[in-house]
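tool_log.txt
---
The assistant was asked to compare two proteins side by side. It first ran the structure predictor on the initial sequence, then on the second. Raw inputs and outputs are pasted verbatim so the downstream comparison step can read them without reformatting.
(1)
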Amino acid sequence: MAKIGIITVSDRASAGVYEDLSGKAIIATLNDYLVSDWTEVYQVIPDEQDVIENTMIDMVDNKGCCLVITTGGTGPAKRDVTPEATEAVCDRMMPGFGELMRAESLKYVPTAILSRQTAGLRNESLILNLPGKPKSIRECLDAVFPAIPYCIDLMNGPYLDCNHEVIKPFRPKKK
């Protein structure tokens, strides 16, 4: 069974000022996409770089998540440090994910260029940063998720089987 980490980075949601809708949007989207068994490892944390880094490390190194998806902390505000935390804990970066998400978001809002989403690899796991708005989460995941199952395959992770009527992952044809 695949373990997928979901991290909501928000001072206010972590303090209980408001409900975390973004993390729940990721979980709902993954439930739409995946037909294989998976379990969530879910946390809501403040915008503190050391907390973000330690949470990502724990989800990958200790909890065995093959995929960690963050939401929030990717804008230009001073406390938006999720990309810096991601870069600090990853062995290699995967800039194409951020590039595609920004291109997709530009179809809806001109401020998408302010977003700093990125992705990277830690050990045999993919860490992906998403924006903080639930609507944007689905738009971005619809764009990049077709590449995620194959990326996880290449890192010897669990096979993520998808509902092909909802999302069509790319995997090369076997010869």
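(2)
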Amino acid sequence: MTLSFAAPADNAIDLNVISQDDLGNWLENQPAATKAWVLANGFSGRIGEALVVPDTEGQPRLALAGYGSTAARARGRFALAAAATKLPSGDYRITSGLPDDQAEVEALGWLLSGYRFDRYKSATPMRAHLVAPDGIDVAKVEAIANGEALTRTLINTPASDMGPPDLEKAARELAGAHGASINVIVGDELLKENLPMIHTVGRAANRAPRLIDIRWGGSGPTLTLVGKGVCFDTGGLNIKPGSSMGLMKKDMGGAAAVLGLAHMIMAAKANVQLRVLIPAVENSISDNAYRPQDILTSRKGLTVEINNTDAEGRLVLADALALADEEKPDQIISMATLTGAARVAVGPDLAPYFSDDANFVTALEASAAKVSDPVWRMPFHTPYESMIEPDIADLDNAPKGGFAGCITAALFLRRFVTDSNYAHFDIYGWQPSAAPARAKGGVGQGTRALLDAIDRILTP
């Protein structure tokens, strides 16, 4: 689906965005009939309230959208979107009440409210359409909305229709839409190209493992995005219980996120040389599945002892990160639904990230606040390196003890990047319950903040 603003039109309905604190002043400047109608309908300006004020013929004359209080807005995001979904059919033009510095974020929230995942069941489309507010970058906001829609759809699609070949198809369509090049290494060719851990994790599945490699842009700083593309994770021979396997269609959420971000970057025609690497696999069970206590040799030459086949994401990412690092790009960023420990630490709404680069941190944190895409910095705590070093190999893919699981996973990945600036995002990729602009289901995290910060990250 395509998310876009309504075309400007003379018959667009004027929309007044009204906070609880400003309602009284607004009413004092309205005709008596309008004031009476608003009061009779109990409109108070709370977040999520919407009201149409009719003219003498019963047609919409103007509309009101509650914007809540400062404290209420601090408890959530996309306050305008909460009202937008309750407005009747029509095109709406914001005429008052929306702060200029929030216009872009709130307009984006309105667009995202129109997202529907309707591949398998019809869904009622959003009825209220927004004319883009004055002063916003329309093309950019629409690119962000559609990049986010791509991420959501890829995550929401079940593994029956989103295996490694399907993820490759989506990547090819994205590359084709933007004139990017794409190369895909499949099956046993992974061994010939020295990508052994991607092959090992995915070899037990009927749908062959692969590495997807997209390139775009001929000038500017170099940026490589690496996304975990585990299209379904049974846990391998360390099989997950059913309760833990239920959401494993989203274990390719990192791949979905970087493809969505890549769309945003390419649609915005950012001055960057972009590379996207996605190891796409299924972690399945068969007679040739890899086993606990196996020792794998990575692309980088580091050996890895397998102490849990359910810690597979870091294995496929490791080979992709080593490949990325060989070109020494200005920045490598990995995104993955990697550990349950990250969810325990910060819950589903925050995107934990790891970086030792002060410029990266400063730029990202400022952008995250600006675009309402919350992130939380976690430490690359070097003293924990000993926890990922077993007796008989260079690295342990699943340290015992249960402490600092997201940190040890990040430290594991960092071992495979030695010549480039590196940041890692351990995202959840799922909205557990519906919220303004975010339907229950797959969701992007950290990508809008990265897009906003990218110039400052790459050209400090």
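---
observation on (2): The longest strand covers residues 273-283. The mean pLDDT is 97.
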